[in-house]
Design brief:
Elements (H helix, E strand, L loop, with lengths): L16 H6 L15 H12 L4 E5 L8 E7 L2 E7 L5 E5 L14 E3 L3 E2 L6 E2 L5 E3 L18 E5 L2 E5 L8 H12 L7 E11 L3 H8 L31 H21 L6 E3 L7 E6 L30 E6 L3 E5 L4 E10 L2 E11 L10 H27 L13 H18 L2
Antiparallel strand pairs: 1-10, 2-3, 2-5, 3-4, 6-7, 7-8, 9-10, 11-17, 12-13, 13-14, 14-15, 15-16, 16-17
Helix pairs in contact: 2-7, 4-6, 4-7
The chain binds 1-methyl-L-proline and FE2/S2 (inorganic) cluster.
1-methyl-L-proline (3BY) binds next to loops.
Cofactor: Fe cation
InterPro entries: Rieske_2Fe-2S, Rieske_2Fe-2S_sf, Ring_hydroxy_dOase_asu_C_dom, Rng_hydr_dOase-A
GO molecular function: 2 iron, 2 sulfur cluster binding; iron ion binding; monooxygenase activity; oxidoreductase activity, acting on paired donors, with incorporation or reduction of molecular oxygen
Length: 424
Amino acid sequence: MTIELTRPATDAASATTAELLARHRPGYSLEAPFYSDPQIFDLDVRGIFEAHWLFVATEAELPEPGDYVTVELDRSSVIVMRDDDEGVRAFHNVCRHRGSRLLDDPCGSVGNLVCPYHHWTYGTDGRLLHADNQPPTLDRSALSLRPVHVRAVAGLIFICLATEPPSDFDAVMDRVLPYLAPYELTRTKVAHQVDIVEEGNWKLVMENNRECYHCDGHPELLTAYFPLHGYTADDCPPRLRPVWARYEQARADLTASCARQGFPRERMRELENRPTGFMLDHAPLDGAGSSYSAGGEVVCRRRLGVIADDRFGDLHLHLQPNSWFHLLSDHAVVFSVLPLDATHSRLRTTWLVEADAVEGVDYDLASLTHVWNATNTQDSVFVARTQRGVLDPAYVPGPYSEVEGDVEAFVGWYVNRLTAWLSR
Ligand code: 3BY
Ligand code: FES
């Protein structure tokens, strides 16, 4: 037996990012600098986060005109706002006078946007309405807040900071929309929202989400979630065969329910080779099959949208680079990751329930949030442990298992997109 005692011959830190990308070994995790180097973090911000569509908020967070959330991404701050015509707008949080930040809070509500410095005042559509002591020749129409590309799709809000956003986004959303529309997320309210500062690079947070190889670390999740992500009937290990049998039955029931309700059913998986990589799978749930709760029972008495069946599994959508979504008959839980620095990320989790659902009557917050709070906490530990490990000089990329295909697809997508951006 040979025991490898030495560090890898090539020092990764001395290679350029382009070289590191070019020598990435498919089927293996990334080299250490991708998880820790501040220069690569800077490239990630510019080449990934400023160049792609990002899921940043839900329409439920902006029920009334003037409601806003601010999105902080490295040096950029973006205001996402409900305008007076009930549309969703996004602007750079930068005054057109001398550049002051306009809004400081993560969310709130305003009549107009008034700069705290010299009180230039903008409408909810971004137009400059008032600026004191200006000559009559001032062209106010040229001094609107600078817009940011924004799309509201079935109640989910995406922004893109690129001058020319990836052009495949609308086509992807057209394909996803028939699956999301029945849940009517525009008619929901925020029951709960939690931010976690993950002690890990944003890619470690995403990679962890993209596999269930570690799912025995999630006992609460496994009361409802079938830990079969990435398995087929052929490679399902013996210990999971009883689970597989339950899964097959639940999947057949779900297919029948979709057919009865006239909803689409096919899985879609185009994670790697397009700018807006995505995966959508309407998966059955274990136990009672309805929701994320101890026995798979519903956790909210009011169903979402036009769903006519409590036992309607989990419509889950994964989007590159920063989000995933679980839509159940009785609630939705949506996740957005934003990078903070090379080794820290913010994970925001938002629980949505039907707009008229009443806490304490239709749902109880502790039950609604139990499974994903527990799962998020467990995942944070996995992410932080991995961050510490990949910072160790002994770390070398390791091979993905057969059930980590979506991690490999995420990493492949990242390598493709950053390579394309660097050679633009
Ligand atoms: O949240 C998710 O979609 C993933 C899929 C596998 C593990 N994790 C629960
Ligand atoms: Fe905003 Fe002067 S910087 S009004």
